[in-house]
């Protein structure tokens, strides 16, 4: 019944394409009943060091969505990007296990900010929209052994800030959050839901 409700609420007459193979984003969009195909963007997640976190996640999300939109004739393409910011320093996905350890050690006992941006691009018209959300996350103090054991699982390697909050051991690192939980998972569902309906012209 709930899936039918969301399928009706997020109806679209044209194909929907997610420009990401992130299992977390796939799960969240399916959770709200959205039907879509998947095409990885292949975009290199590089950014201008002088840009703000908000600009970075919006720019990268749009770049990912636009890259896929150029390959198709018709469809609404969804792009997304997540970064972690600690004391003004941006933490993306770790490039090595040692870097993952350094990230988690730095996050231990502190509050950081997670930014997730998303973009919608209409492949046929080129119309686009970008949005972002931010959430404050506080870690409890972590032990060296639990950091190293977590890193050895390999789980942190595809996650901004080297941890996951959903379906992942990294959840026990989080003491509290302030803001949208799904932003930390990797996709701000409430803001996306509203933006998608407006973008597709469904304002009912």
How would you sum up this structure, described in words?
- Strands 1, 2, 3, 4, 5, 6 and 7 form a seven-stranded mixed beta sheet that branches.
- Strand 5 and strand 6 (128-139) form a beta hairpin.
- The protein is elongated.
- The model is unreliable at 1-8 (pLDDT under 50).
- It has a single domain, classed as Alpha-Beta Complex (Maf protein).
- The chain has 204 residues and is α/β, with parallel strands linked by helices.
- 34% of the residues lie in helices and 24% in strands.
- It contains seven helices and seven strands; from the N terminus they run H-E-H-E-H-E-E-H-E-E-H-E-H-H.
Using DSSP, what is the number of strands? 7
- Measured distance between first and last alpha carbons: 20 Å
- Choose one word for the global shape: elongated
**Into how many domains do the coordinates divide?**
1
Beta-strand share of residues: 15-25%
What is the overall number of helices? 7
| Gyration radius from CA atoms, angstroms | 17 Å
Topology record:
Layout: H1 2-9, E1 16-18, H2 23-31, E2 37-38, H3 53-69, E3 76-86, E4 89-91, H4 97-107, E5 111-122, E6 128-139, H5 144-152, E7 174-178, H6 181-185, H7 189-199
Parallel strand pairs: 1-2, 1-3
Antiparallel strand pairs: 3-4, 3-5, 5-6, 6-7
Helix pairs in contact: 4-5
Structural key phrases:
204 residues, alpha/beta, Maf protein, 7 helices, elongated, disordered N terminus
Summarize the structure.
This protein has 204 residues and is an alpha/beta fold.
């Amino acid at each position: 019944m709930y899936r039918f409700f969301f399928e009706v609420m997020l109806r679209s007459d044209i194909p929907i394409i997610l420009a990401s193979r992130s299992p977390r984003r796939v799960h969240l969009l399916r959770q709200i009943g959205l039907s879509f195909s998947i095409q990885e963007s292949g975009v290199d997640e590089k950014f201008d060091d002088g840009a703000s976190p908000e600009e970075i996640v919006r720019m990268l999300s749009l770049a990912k969505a636009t890259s896929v939109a150029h390959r198709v004739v018709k469809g609404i393409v969804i792009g997304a990007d997540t970064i972690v910011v600690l004391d003004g320093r941006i933490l993306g996905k770790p490039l090595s296990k040692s870097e993952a350890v350094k990230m988690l050690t730095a996050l231990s006992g502190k509050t950081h900010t997670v930014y997730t941006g998303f973009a919608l691009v209409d492949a046929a018209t080129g119309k686009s929209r970008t949005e972002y959300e931010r959430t404050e996350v506080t870690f409890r103090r972590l032990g060296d052994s639990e950091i190293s054991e977590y890193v050895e699982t390999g789980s942190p390697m595809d996650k901004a800030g080297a941890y996951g909050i959903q379906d992942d051991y990294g959840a026990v690192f989080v003491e509290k959050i302030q803001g949208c939980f799904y932003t930390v998972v990797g996709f701000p569902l409430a803001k996306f839901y509203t933006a998608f309906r407006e973008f597709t012209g469904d304002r009912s």
